[in-house]
Structures are given as C-alpha cells and as structure tokens.
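Handout, section 4.2: multi-component inputs.
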Amino acid sequence: MINTVTLNPAVDRILYIPSFTRNITNRIRSTKDYLGGKGTHVSINLKLLNTASRAFGIAYGDTGKKVIQFLKDFQIDVQFIYEDKGETRTNYLVIEDTNDCSIIADRGMDLAEGILERLIHQMRMNLKEEDYLVLSGDASNCSDPMVYNRIMKELSDKRLRVFLDTSGESLMECIRSSPYLIKPNLDELSYISKKNLSGDEEIIQALKELDPYQVEIIAVSLGGDGSLVKYRDEFYRVYPPRVRVSNTIGCGDCYLAGLVYGIHEGKNIAETLRIATAASAAAAESNTSVGFDTDRAKQLENLVTIKKLA
Ligand code: TA6
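Output:
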C-alpha cells in the first residue's frame, strides 16, 4: 500500500486576479477553494492514476474538516488525526491572467508533541512491511525540524520504501537514512551539495557525490526545463513537452505522484519518468492547484523526450 503523510495540510484558496500590483487595491475576479498540501496532493494524483493510497495527516477545526472531506470525495482512505480545537491553515494562491502564480502560505497549527506521537502510532498500526511512504510538504509547524527523519527512524523496522520531498537541513538529515527517492529542485540539491550548481555536468557530479547515502533515485526537478534523474548508476535528462502554462502550482506533486505510480506498477525508469513528466505538464495547463487532466497527460506522454546520459 502507498501511504502519504501531510503534517501541515491546507485548504488552497485560489484568488484569480487580472494582475497583482503592490501598494494598491487589487480586485479579485473570483476565488475557489481546493485541497492544499503536498502529501494530500500526491494521494489525489495517485487516485487520478487509478492507484489507491492511504492519507495520513493532522487536521484541525472546520478547515481541517474540509481537507478530510476533499480526500473522502476522492474515495481516499483517510487516516488523519483530527482535533476540533484550532484551525488547519488556508494558503492563498494568487493566479494572474499573465499565468504568474504566487503562494502566500500560512504557518499552520504548531504540532503538539502528543499529536505527533498519536500520528506515528496510527501509522505504525496501519503500515505493513515494505509499504510505500510519501513524506512531502511543509513541516515547519513541528518543533522538531527533523520530524521527517524521526518518522523514518521510528518506522525503520518496517523497511518502508520512502519517497521524500523536503529541503534544507531536513533533506540533509533524511538522506542519511537512505530514502528510496528524493526530489530536490536545483536550489535544494545545491544546498545539500554545498555548491552553487548549474548545468547538467555539475548536477551529475553532485549526484555522484551522494552515492554513499544509497538513495536509489534522485530526481532533480528543473521546473519548466524538466528534470535530471539518477537511477542507480544511470543518468537521464528528461525534457517536458511544450504546453500552454496556466499555473505551475501542484506540478511538483503530480511529478512525484507519477514517479511513485510508475515504480509501484513495476514500470521501467524511462516509462516512469515519461508518465511523471506528462502528468506534471498536464497539471501546468490546469487553472487549479491540484490534480491534472488524465486524458491530456496520456496524450502528452509521447511528447516527453528522455535522453540516457553516458
Ligand atoms: O504544491 C502545491 C501546494 O501543495 C499547494 O497546494 C499549497 O498548499 C502549497 O504547495 C503547500 O506547500 P507547503 O510546502 O507549504 O506544504
């Protein structure tokens, strides 16, 4: 079973505006609420790929109820810790007619120690040996900045296949526990490599230097320029198809869900990268923050270019 964890979920309130200008009154044309948070998005995207997952997380108050309902509406097995008191955060996503998109992310509820312990206990009760575990999204609401590493360590006896989307010190610490896959962007890879990386050659060299951590797959996301992926001792450069970008929010979550899906289905790495990249490109054409058009993603798969590097 594939399990996602969202320690700091959100409702995404999208504000559609003609264009944003500082220091004046900007009039909203329309707003819409969607499910927010990264682990939750991976669960939704897996469902769109006809793959079941179990969503763990922590939700508070009426906004937390909305998050849980969004997931249930997609028939996802919701294993959230819920607290009446408090309020799950609302993130504000400003999408302009220019297709510029900006996120104003709230901090979210500070996670009390007891709550985190309850969540980890609930995961321990439900996860089976060698299950997949997706750890993705902000965790700055936890007093322990290494909370992802703590989860990995506390569940290490289950020999889980961990897919990790985090950054900074958390990523630096977590790779010591050899997750199966990490998905840093170029800045995040530069941070853990302690170098200001640019160009495929420097990226490849930096990836080789991470070999001691035995991470099976390192997918370096390069935004609209695709990705450079290390799979065991192989390197792939992936170029996405050109699409009409509406907004790029949620593309990374689609890419991660596509990787989890391909690996879970036993597809080879090239096929997995093709599916993940097409899902992400389809998401870029969507004017929401979650999900993608599955027919469009299928159509785009053949337009993804994958080069195996020496
Ligand atoms: O990737 C899209 C998204 O999950 C949005 O839904 C928005 O809620 C934001 O990213 C949350 O990211 P964070 O890193 O704050 O968990």
